[in-house]
C-alpha cells in the first residue's frame, strides 16, 4: 500500500473542485461489494455451526452434546475445531493483508480487488464441496485471503477516488455493506436451515454471489489516479482524475498527488518511522481502536448469534430469526453513520458506540499494523469465545462490559477529532494540539518531516 494513502485530500483538500459524480458513486458501490463478501462470511459461520446437518457431518461430538445438554447449555458448543472453522479466516487475513499491501502498490488497487474476488470464489468452492474438516478449513483460509486483499484494497480505493467532502461517508459504504452482508447471511441461514441435509452448503455457497459481482464489476471501474501516478502513468492518472471529478479544473489536486508521490518515494523504512515520537499518537489510537472493536463483543454477536440464542434456550428457528433481527439493527445503525460522519465527526460517533474503522490518519506501515491488530483480535475472540462462554457463563457479559467502558473513556480523553482536517494537516492541526499527544513532538523531528524524509 502506498505511503500517501489519503493524500488526494491534500492541504486545503476541501478547496478542491469537483463533485460527487456518478462515476465515483458507481465505482465506490462496486468496490464496497468487497465489504459485502466479508460481512456475508462473518454472518454465515454462526448460523451454519448451529445447524444439525452441519454438525453431524463435521462435528458429531458437538451434535451429541448439543442434544444431550440439559442443565449446562453454556458448554455444548465448546470445541476448538468448531471455533477454528470461524477463526481461521481471520488468521489467514493477517498474513495476506501484508501481501495485499505490496500488491496494492506494485499492481494497483483494481487488480488487488480482482485477486480478492478470486480468492473468495475458490474458498466458496472448497466450502460447498467439502467432504471433511480439512477441506472446510482450507476453504475458510481462502476466504481469509480474500478478506486480507479486500480490506487493504477497497477502503484505499474508495478513499482515493472520493472528493474530500464525501470521503467519510463513502468509506463507511464499505462498513455498511459488511453489515448488510451479515444481515443477508442471517436471512439465508434462516431459510436454508429447513433444507435437509445440504442446506448448509447453500449457505456457504451464497458467498460466491458478491464475489462474482466484485470480480465482474472490477473490470469496468477505473483505477485510482493516485495508483496510476505512483506507477509512472501520469497522463493516464490526470485523465482519470478529470473523469471522476467531472471537471477539467483538477490541476491543484493533481499537483498535490504528484507531490505526495514524490515524498512517498523517499520513504525507505516505513516501519522504522512508526517508532518516532511524532507517530506515537496515530499508531496507538489506530491500533487500540481495533482492540476495542473486538473486545467490546460486537463480533461475537455477529459470529455466534444463533449459537448464543440457542444457549439462552431459543429453538433453532427462533435463534436464527433473532440473528436476523440483530443484523437488521446493525445495518440500520451503520446507515445512520453514513449520513452523519462528515457532519458531526468521527469522535462523536465513536463515543455514541457506532464503532468505525476510519483510519484516515495512518500511512502504509501504520495501516498494516491497525488491520493486523484488528484481524488478530478477531481471530483470538472467535477462537476462544465458546470456551470462555463455557467457563464464564453469564459472567462473560461483564467481561465485555468492562471493555466497553474502557473504550468510551479512551474515545473521550485520548482521541482527537479529525473532522474537516486534511491528511497532510493532521500533525499540525490535530496531534500537536491534543492535550496528551502533543508531548511526543519535538522541533527537530518536525523539521525532518517537513523536508519529506518521514512521509510515511
From TrEMBL:
<dbReference type="InterPro" id="IPR005828">
    <property type="entry name" value="MFS_sugar_transport-like"/>
</dbReference>
<feature type="transmembrane region" description="Helical">
    <location>
        <begin position="20"/>
        <end position="40"/>
    </location>
</feature>
<comment type="similarity">
    <text>Belongs to the major facilitator superfamily. Sugar transporter (TC 2.A.1.1) family.</text>
</comment>
<feature type="transmembrane region" description="Helical">
    <location>
        <begin position="200"/>
        <end position="222"/>
    </location>
</feature>
<feature type="transmembrane region" description="Helical">
    <location>
        <begin position="137"/>
        <end position="158"/>
    </location>
</feature>
<dbReference type="InterPro" id="IPR003663">
    <property type="entry name" value="Sugar/inositol_transpt"/>
</dbReference>
<feature type="transmembrane region" description="Helical">
    <location>
        <begin position="319"/>
        <end position="341"/>
    </location>
</feature>
<dbReference type="InterPro" id="IPR045262">
    <property type="entry name" value="STP/PLT_plant"/>
</dbReference>
<feature type="transmembrane region" description="Helical">
    <location>
        <begin position="81"/>
        <end position="103"/>
    </location>
</feature>
<dbReference type="GO" id="GO:0016020">
    <property type="term" value="C:membrane"/>
</dbReference>
<keyword id="KW-0762">Sugar transport</keyword>
<protein>
    <submittedName>
        <fullName>Major facilitator, sugar transporter-like</fullName>
    </submittedName>
</protein>
<dbReference type="GO" id="GO:0015293">
    <property type="term" value="F:symporter activity"/>
</dbReference>
<keyword id="KW-0769">Symport</keyword>
<feature type="transmembrane region" description="Helical">
    <location>
        <begin position="283"/>
        <end position="307"/>
    </location>
</feature>
<dbReference type="InterPro" id="IPR005829">
    <property type="entry name" value="Sugar_transporter_CS"/>
</dbReference>
<keyword id="KW-0812">Transmembrane</keyword>
<keyword id="KW-0472">Membrane</keyword>
<feature type="transmembrane region" description="Helical">
    <location>
        <begin position="392"/>
        <end position="415"/>
    </location>
</feature>
<feature type="transmembrane region" description="Helical">
    <location>
        <begin position="365"/>
        <end position="386"/>
    </location>
</feature>
<dbReference type="InterPro" id="IPR020846">
    <property type="entry name" value="MFS_dom"/>
</dbReference>
<keyword id="KW-1133">Transmembrane helix</keyword>
<feature type="transmembrane region" description="Helical">
    <location>
        <begin position="115"/>
        <end position="131"/>
    </location>
</feature>
<dbReference type="Pfam" id="PF00083">
    <property type="entry name" value="Sugar_tr"/>
</dbReference>
<dbReference type="InterPro" id="IPR044778">
    <property type="entry name" value="MFS_STP/MST-like_plant"/>
</dbReference>
<feature type="transmembrane region" description="Helical">
    <location>
        <begin position="170"/>
        <end position="188"/>
    </location>
</feature>
<dbReference type="GO" id="GO:0015145">
    <property type="term" value="F:monosaccharide transmembrane transporter activity"/>
</dbReference>
<dbReference type="InterPro" id="IPR036259">
    <property type="entry name" value="MFS_trans_sf"/>
</dbReference>
<feature type="domain" description="Major facilitator superfamily (MFS) profile">
    <location>
        <begin position="27"/>
        <end position="456"/>
    </location>
</feature>
<keyword id="KW-0813">Transport</keyword>
Amino acid at each position: 500500500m502506498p505511503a500517501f494513502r489519503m493524500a488526494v485530500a491534500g492541504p486545503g483538500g476541501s478547496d478542491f473542485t469537483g463533485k460527487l459524480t456518478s462515476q465515483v458513486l458507481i465505482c465506490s458501490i462496486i468496490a464496497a461489494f468487497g465489504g459485502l463478501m466479508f460481512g456475508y462470511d462473518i454472518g454465515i459461520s454462526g448460523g451454519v455451526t448451529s445447524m444439525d446437518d452441519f454438525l453431524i457431518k463435521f462435528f458429531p461430538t458437538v451434535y451429541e452434546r448439543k442434544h444431550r445438554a440439559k442443565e449446562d447449555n453454556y458448554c455444548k458448543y465448546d470445541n476448538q475445531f468448531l471455533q477454528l472453522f470461524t477463526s481461521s479466516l481471520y488468521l489467514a487475513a493477517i498474513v495476506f493483508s501484508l501481501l495485499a499491501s505490496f500488491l496494492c502498490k506494485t499492481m494497483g488497487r483494481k487488480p488487488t480487488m480482482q485477486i480478492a474476488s478470486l480468492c473468495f470464489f475458490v474458498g466458496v468452492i472448497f466450502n460447498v464441496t467439502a467432504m471433511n474438516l480439512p477441506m472446510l478449513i482450507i476453504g475458510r483460509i481462502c476466504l481469509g485471503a480474500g478478506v486480507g486483499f479486500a480490506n487493504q484494497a477497497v477502503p484505499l480505493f474508495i478513499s482515493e477516488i472520493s472528493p474530500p467532502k464525501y470521503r467519510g461517508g463513502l468509506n463507511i459504504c464499505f462498513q455498511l455493506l459488511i453489515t448488510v452482508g451479515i444481515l443477508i447471511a442471517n436471512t439465508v441461514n434462516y431459510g436454508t436451515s429447513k433444507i435437509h441435509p445440504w442446506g448448509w452448503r447453500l449457505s456457504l455457497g451464497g458467498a460466491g454471489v458478491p464475489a462474482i459481482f466484485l470480480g465482474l464489476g472490477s473490470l469496468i471501474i477505473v483505477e485510482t489516479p493516485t495508483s496510476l501516478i505512483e506507477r509512472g502513468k501520469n497522463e493516464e492518472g490526470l485523465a482519470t482524475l478529470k473523469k471522476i471529478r467531472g471537471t477539467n479544473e483538477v490541476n491543484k489536486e493533481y499537483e498535490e498527488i504528484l507531490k505526495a508521490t514524490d515524498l512517498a518515494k523517499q520513504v525507505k523504512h516505513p516501519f522504522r518511522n512508526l517508532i518516532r515520537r511524532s507517530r506515537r499518537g496515530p499508531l496507538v489510537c489506530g491500533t487500540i481502536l481495533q482492540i476495542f472493536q473486538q473486545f467490546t463483543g460486537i463480533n461475537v454477536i455477529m459470529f455466534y448469534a444463533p449459537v448464543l440464542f440457542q444457549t439462552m434456550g431459543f429453538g433453532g428457528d427462533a435463534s436464527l430469526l433473532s440473528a436476523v433481527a440483530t443484523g437488521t439493527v446493525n445495518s440500520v445503525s451503520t446507515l445512520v453513520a453514513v449520513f452523519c460522519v462528515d457532519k458531526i465527526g468521527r469522535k462523536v460517533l465513536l463515543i455514541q458506540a457506532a464503532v468505525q474503522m476510519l483510519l484516515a490518519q495512518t500511512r502504509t506501515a501504520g495501516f498494516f499494523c491497525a488491520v493486523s491488530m484488528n484481524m488478530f483480535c478477531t481471530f483470538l475472540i472467535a477462537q476462544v469465545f465458546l470456551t470462555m462462554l463455557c467457563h464464564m457463563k453469564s459472567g462473560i457479559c461483564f467481561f465485555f462490559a468492562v471493555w466497553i467502558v474502557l473504550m468510551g473513556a479512551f474515545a473521550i480523553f485520548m482521541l482527537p477529532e479529525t473532522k474537516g482536517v486534511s491528511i497532510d494537516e493532521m500533525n499540525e492541526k490535530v496531534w500537536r494540539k491534543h492535550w496528551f499527544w502533543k508531548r511526543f513532538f519535538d522541533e527537530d523531528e518536525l523539521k525532518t518531516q517537513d523536508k519529506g524524509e518521514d512521509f510515511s
